[in-house]
What we know:
Helices cover about 30% and strands about 25% of the residues. By secondary structure, it is α/β, with parallel strands linked by helices.
Amino acid sequence: MVDGNALWSPEITKAMEKRQVFDGKEIDTFTDMPENLYEALKKTSSLYPKKIALVDDRENVCTYWQLLTYSQELAAYLYKERKIRKQSHVGILLYNSVEFCVAFLSLIRLGAVAVPLPSKFKRDEVLSLAKLAEVGFVVCDEAYANWFEGMYPKEQVLVISGSGICCGYEKVYKNWASRAKDVAEVNKFSSGGSDDISLIMFTSGTTSKSKALQIRNYNIMHAVEAYRRILHITEKDISVIATPIYHITGLVALLGLFVYTGGTLHLHKFFDAKRVIADARTYGFTFIHASPTVFYLLLQAGEHTPAIPGLVSFACGSGNMPKDKMMSLHRWLPNSQFHTVYGLTETSSPAAIFPDDAAVSGRIGSSGLPIPGIRFKIVDEDNKELPCGQVGEIAVSGSVVLDSYYKQETDNLTDGWLYTGDLGYFDEENYLYVVDRKKDMINRGGEKIWCYDVENAIAGMEEILDSAVVGIPDEMYGEVAAAIVRLKKGSGLTVEKIQQYLYGRMAKYKVPVKIRMVETVPKTPNGKTDKIRIRKMLMED
C-alpha cells in the first residue's frame, strides 16, 4: 500500500488531521478548508471583491463580489419561487458561461445537488441521464428549452437567455426589493455541510452501463486544496476553461480551484486552439489544465510561434500524454512545468500528481505521487496486493474518493476502496505508472466512450445483423472508436450512411471513425465477441 501522506514535504502536508465523515468513514484531510465552494467564494469575495473572477464569450466580466451577489440572488430565487431545497436534484444544461458558474454555486449555497448535463449530447441521451439521477428541476440555455417539454412541467424548467453581464439572471429576478428580502431570508440558514452530497456526475454513456456517482463537499474541498498546495495556484493565476465545464476537470480542477484561490478564469464556449494561444498572449494565462488531446492541438497551433513567457504551469489528466509531445511542449515553452495527473470522476479529479516538471524528469511517463489523504494499492485478479514493480489493477481510497453511486450497487467500490479498472504499478520511489485499462472502454482525448452504447445504437439499423465496437490508436486523440458490422444480404448501407445515422442519435465523438463490413463478427471459443482479434483487424486496415 502506498500512502500519500508520507510522500510530500511538510509544506504540502501541514495542518492535516483524521476526521470522521459520512457514515463513520474516517479520512485524512486538511484542517483549514471551508465547508464547501460557496463558503470558499464568500471568503475570496471578502479578500478580493473587485478582482475579476470570470470572463466569458457573452462579454460578461464578473468580479468576485458580483459572483457572490449573483449566486446569492439566484439561490434566493430558486428557494423562494421554485421551491428548491436541500438535496433537491437540479440539472444544469448550460454552455461555459458566467451563468453556469452562478447556477452551480447557487445550488451549493442552498445545499441542493447539482447535476451537470452534457451539452455535447443529443436530447435522448441528456434525458436518459436526467432520469437516472432523478433530476426534479432544470436550469438550461434557451437553445435547450424545448428538450424538456413533455418530461418536465414549465415550472420545473428555468430557461436562461440573453446577452450582457449575467443578463439571464437579471431577467429572471427583476424586482430589486424582492431580491434583497429573499436573499436576507435565505441567508438565515447555513449552506451545505461538508458531508452533504453537492454533485452528481456520470461515468459515461446512456445505457444501463452508465453510473451516477455522488460527490460530497469534503471530496471537492480536499481536491482543490491538494491542487492549490501542489501546483502552487494563487490569486495571481489566470487560466481558461476551453473544454466543457461539466467535466470534473472544469468543475473542480479549474472552477473550484480558482474560486478557492481567487484567480481569474476565462470561459470559452467552444475549444479553439488558436484562440486559446491568442488569449494566453493577450490576457496573460499562467496555467492550463486539460487533456492530452488539447495539448496536442495547442502544440499543432503554436509550436512554431514565439514562446509565451508567462504560461508557466500545465496539468494534464484524462489520459497519458505521449512523451515526445510533452518534450515538444517544453521546447516551445521552456519556462513551463508539466504536471501529469491521474484521477477519475470518482476521485473528484486528482488522485496522483507529478510534483515537478515531468517533461524533463527521468520518470517521464509517470502519473506522479498519490496526493495527501489518499492511499493506493495494486492488486491481482484475486484482489491480492502486489509488490513494487508488478502490474495490476489500481485501487484507491481516501478523502477525494466517492463513497457511493446514486441508487446503484457496484462491485468496483468495496470497503472504502475504489477499484478503478486501470492497470499500473509503482516504482521504488512510489511514482505511479498507468499502463492500460482493464475495462472495455474507449478514452477519446478524455471523453469516455462505452462500446455497448455505440453497439446498441448500431443495432437500431434494420440492415445490420451484428456489430462490434473497439478502440484503436489515434495520434491526436490517443484512441478513437472503430467498428465492424455484418450486413443483411443485399443491403445498400455504406459507411457514410451508418455514420450519418449515428450522428443523429449520439454525441459526435462517439461515432466510429472507421467502419469495416465483414461476413462474420469474430467470436472466442466460448462464444463471446473476440475484441482482441477485431481490434487487430481494424488496425491492419
